Amino acid sequence: MTVLGMCAAFVMAGSAFHPPVEPAMTVVIDPGHGGKDPGNLGTGRYKTVEKDITLAVAHKTAAYIESRIPGVRVVMTRKGDTYPTLPDRVRIANEAQADLLLSIHCDSFSKKSALGSSTFVMGLDKSEASLRVAAKENASIYEAEDNRGFDPDDPDTFIALALKQEIYLERSLELAALIQSQFRERVGRKDRGVRQAPYYVTAYANMPSVLVELGFLTNPEEEDFLRSEQGQDYMASALFRAFRTYSEHWFSLESAVQTAPDTAPPSTTEPGKGPDDQAEEAPDTPAWFSILRNDCEGTLCFTVQAASSRTGGPLRERDGHAIPHTRSEKVGGVHKYRTGSSPYYAVACQMRDTLQMNGFPDAFVVAFEGGTRIPLEQAIRKQRN
């Protein structure tokens, strides 16, 4: 059960009944396309298409938010390979009375050299580039019966929708800028900027809304990155960090990592000794080592791949201390180092973030079930269920 789920459970205190806690904020995450609508097919080298990547990144983003920010309710417009129409997606967001809509997509172009990430909000910009992307993402609306007469090429319709979204524009633009900053500075993606375009989902949603293009699947290098677990995890982490900053600004939500009560770091103080005595015995041990733990006893485990090396040897931090709870595996002549373990994805993310801040920028979370590595998205779904 998530932290939010535990908060929402009722509590009996004598004869008193405490009603479920209302969420402080609701965010709708919309994985683009799905079902009979695959989205763009990328380079054609793989069976994986846009709908698969958007769903994977959406699940990971939802997992970050639910596990790390109490008080946020996450609603997904689809949780599997289904096909909600564009009106369905908008209806889900509006009926949830959401405070934010985040729609996730992947871009495509006729030239495979095109690359980079961009974020769109509803607005009056009708540049060629904005209309190209909007036409692609709006294509399915013309097949739907309930399209509300949506025609972005009609000046009156377009202006009316843009003015309707004007009340949410400041917040939409702020979140879009935060997302692009994270993509650029934390993930190293080419920044194609924040743009305005007539998207159906952002036009009819009664809330601040953004539509994210993670990258170009028609670019081989970018397609490989977005198909990889590490790439998807990085992009989801960037979306989460942008959302966290946004929620802190507009909703004053607590952003500290939340974990189940039994996952707190074990005490490093021995019986009969105070913290000061313990510190004197090992003054050089980095304090952040306490975040790393090895407490996975079940079949489903999350761990962190911290680094890889061709030379082998102990995994050490910058001052030479051996990283605790480390296991190495030699694959194809390369030693891969995994550090720590936990049955909770959020705890593994905390360990990964700590490692990244302390000299291991390429650290990422991997999952195992019964000792066999499984896709991270599959493990997250198992934990959530």
Describe this structure in words.
By secondary structure, the chain is α/β, with parallel strands linked by helices. It folds into two domains: 249 residues, Zn-dependent exopeptidases (Aminopeptidase, 3-Layer(aba) Sandwich); 96 residues, no CATH class. The strands form three sheets. It has a six-stranded mixed sheet with strand order 4-3-5-8-6-7, with helices on both faces. A five-stranded antiparallel sheet has the order 10-11-9-12-13. Strands 1-2 form a two-stranded antiparallel ribbon. Helix 2 packs across helix 9, helix 2 packs across helix 12 and helix 6 packs antiparallel against helix 9. The chain is globular.
Question: Nutshell version of this structure?
Answer:
The chain has 385 residues and is α/β, with parallel strands linked by helices. Helices cover 36% and strands 21% of the residues.
3D shape: globular
Structural class per helix/strand content?
alpha/beta
Q: What characterizes the major β-sheet? A: 6 strands, mixed
Order of helices and strands: HEEEHEHEEHHHEHEHHHEEEHEEH
- The low-confidence runs, each spanning 5 or more residues with pLDDT under 50, are 1-20, 126-150, 152-160, 254-283
- What is the subunit arrangement here? single chain
Q: Might you state the CATH topology name of the largest domain?
A: Aminopeptidase
Number of E-state strands: 13
- Provide the spatial order of strands within the biggest beta sheet: 4-3-5-8-6-7
Helix content: 25-40%
CATH H-tier superfamily of the largest domain:
Zn-dependent exopeptidases
Kindly give the count of domains. 2
In CATH's first tier, which class of the largest domain applies?
Alpha Beta
Shape-level CATH architecture of the largest domain: 3-Layer(aba) Sandwich
- Approximate strand percentage: 15-25%
Helical segment tally?
12
Over the alpha carbons, how many angstroms does the gyration radius reach? Answer: 23 Å
Instruction: Return the average pLDDT rounded to an integer.
Output: 76
